[in-house]
Task: inverse folding
């Protein structure tokens, strides 16, 4: 089953054309690396999927639906947290619960099971001992892990991750990608934007390289750093 | 001393109405401050003043004209924010000033600066009527219920609009809701806190709470507590020293703010 389908999507910010006839599909259960140099439109494509931006031309489907609304199926971690107020009064547990709570009817209390899910997600990213800590009092890498936990705590079937490990140290990154691999093996579909080729190529099933449109689509084996330079410079 | 004060009927009403106002302003204010909408309260109070002036001029109940004007302005603000991307703050400012100046003109056409107006500007505990109390209580309960109902979505949207949106939260509807609730909160707070200082009551107790709170629920609780302490000390001072209640309440909340800020520095 197709989870993501882009059909000749074009997009420009004012005069600057960023996506030009972008077409690709992602199937259920795939673990896809979404690569490309800075400014090639990766984040923009993600924002279009999430409905923050509307395509100028072309169309897209999520979970085979034209006007997709079941946002609980999507877990999203955005590229470095620019607008984050470090004085925001929320502790780690509260932040990690936000995604789950947004989907509850406001009169419902969090069930024990849901609380457990948040604890488990925090444990997965190695942040369980910080649950009561104020979010602004963590290091950047630790904050990023909490945002990951927030996406993991929901029942998301599709994870859209935009450079989720920015600021996370090398060992933790390895652990994190290993975790993604496990989640993928349990059935989650993952689209991962990243520049850490060395760590992700041996774990993903498929590589997409973007430069306004897809310029490479293949197995990680067929893809080398040399070819990356070649592919992206050809355009 | 406090018990002695409570013998007075007007004091009971002022205190009771004050508690409702404090609950609403304390909780609503946390969201406004976090959403960087602190100054909306200020703008709406200008509009409410225009409404009060129109009420006095046309001999209507100023409370109702104030609340009507504020709610209308809440919709106008959202429309302007949507329509005029550039300089939306300037256009909103222009609307506020226009309504305020109409108010000033109406007031001077009526018999100038009457005592009723004085109490609207600065707050006056003796002026709290039964109707004011009933309105503060009933609207207060509605506002509180709505805030509690949407608290999680509001918290998420205040923390991070984009992720909240990706979780299916309708952020622009929440923004309109916040502004509407602010309009109601301002209107029912005017009797006690006064037009000039009502927006401070929406900002200072929450800002003090944000100095020290480490979790969201605590921020809400501290904000209400700071508000209640300011309210009670302000009402007592207003009674004994015969000063405007608005000034007394906001002054105590400002003192608490500096205490919280200093306390936080000392702990660090
Ligand atoms: N809000 C915006 N307004 C105008 N131009 C923008 C905006 N956001 C991005 N751009 C431009 O669009 C292009 C694509 O940006 P995008 O963020 O999608 O790139 P990216 O592939 O995610 O890059 P990176 O690897 O640096 O994150 C860039 O040239 C950028 O300058
Ligand atoms: Mg990007």
Result:
């Amino acid at each position: 089953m197709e989870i993501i389908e882009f059909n000749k999507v074009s997009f420009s910010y004012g005069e600057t054309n960023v996506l030009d006839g972008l077409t690709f599909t992602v199937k259920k259960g795939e673990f896809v690396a979404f690569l490309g140099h800075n400014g090639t439109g990766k984040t923009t494509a993600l924002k279009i999927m999430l409905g923050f931006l509307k395509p100028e031309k072309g169309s897209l489907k999520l979970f085979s639906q034209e006007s997709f609304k079941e946002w609980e199926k999507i877990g999203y971690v955005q590229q470095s947290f620019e607008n984050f107020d470090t004085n925001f009064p929320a502790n780690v547990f509260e932040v990690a619960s936000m995604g789950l709570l947004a989907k509850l009817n406001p009169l419902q209390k969090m069930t024990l099971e849901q609380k457990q899910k948040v604890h488990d997600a925090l444990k997965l990213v190695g942040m369980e001992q910080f649950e009561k800590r104020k979010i602004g009092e963590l290091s950047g890498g630790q904050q990023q892990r909490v945002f990951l936990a927030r996406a993991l705590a929901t029942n998301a079937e599709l994870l859209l991750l935009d450079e989720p490990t920015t600021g996370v140290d090398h060992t933790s990154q390895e652990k994190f990608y290993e975790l993604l691999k496990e989640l993928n093996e349990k059935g989650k579909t993952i689209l991962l934007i990243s520049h850490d080729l060395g760590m992700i190529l041996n774990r993903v099933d498929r590589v997409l390289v973007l430069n306004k449109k897809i310029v490479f689509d293949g197995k990680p084996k067929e893809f080398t750093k040399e070819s990356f330079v070649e592919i992206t410079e050809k355009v | 001393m406090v018990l002695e004060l409570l013998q007075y009927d007007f004091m009971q009403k002022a205190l009771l109405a004050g508690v409702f106002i404090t609950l609403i302003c304390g909780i609503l204010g946390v969201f406004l401050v976090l959403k960087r909408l602190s100054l909306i309260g200020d703008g709406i109070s200008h509009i409410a003043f225009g409404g009060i002036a129109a009420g006095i001029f046309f001999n209507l109940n100023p409370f109702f004209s104030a609340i009507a004007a504020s709610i209308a302005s809440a919709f106008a603000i959202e429309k302007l924010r949507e329509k005029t991307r550039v300089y939306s703050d300037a256009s909103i400012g222009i609307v506020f000033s226009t309504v305020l100046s109409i108010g000033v003109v109406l007031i001077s056409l009526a018999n100038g600066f009457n005592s009723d107006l004085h109490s609207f500007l600065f707050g006056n505990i003796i002026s709290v009527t039964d109707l004011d109390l009933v309105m503060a209580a009933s609207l207060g309960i509605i506002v509180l219920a709505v805030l509690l109902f949407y608290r999680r979505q509001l918290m998420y949207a205040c923390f991070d609009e984009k992720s909240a949106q990706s979780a299916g939260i309708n952020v622009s509807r929440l923004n309109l809701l916040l502004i509407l609730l602010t309009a109601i909160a301002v209107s029912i707070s005017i009797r006690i806190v006064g037009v000039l200082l009502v927006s401070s009551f929406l900002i200072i107790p929450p800002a003090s709470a944000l100095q020290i709170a480490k979790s969201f629920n605590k921020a809400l609780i501290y904000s209400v507590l700071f508000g209640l302490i300011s309210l009670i000390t302000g009402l007592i001072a207003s009674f004994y020293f015969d000063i405007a209640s608005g000034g007394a309440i906001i002054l105590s909340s400002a003192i608490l703010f500096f205490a919280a800020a200093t306390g936080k520095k000392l702990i660090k």
About this structure: Chain B touches chain A at residues 30, 34, 148-153, 155-156, 158-169, 209-210, 213-216, 218-219 (CB under 8 Å). The pocket of adenosine-5'-triphosphate (ligand 1) is lined by residues A 13, 16, 18, 36, 38-44, 79 (CB under 6 Å). Chain B has one domain: 2-263. Chain B has a mean pLDDT of 87.
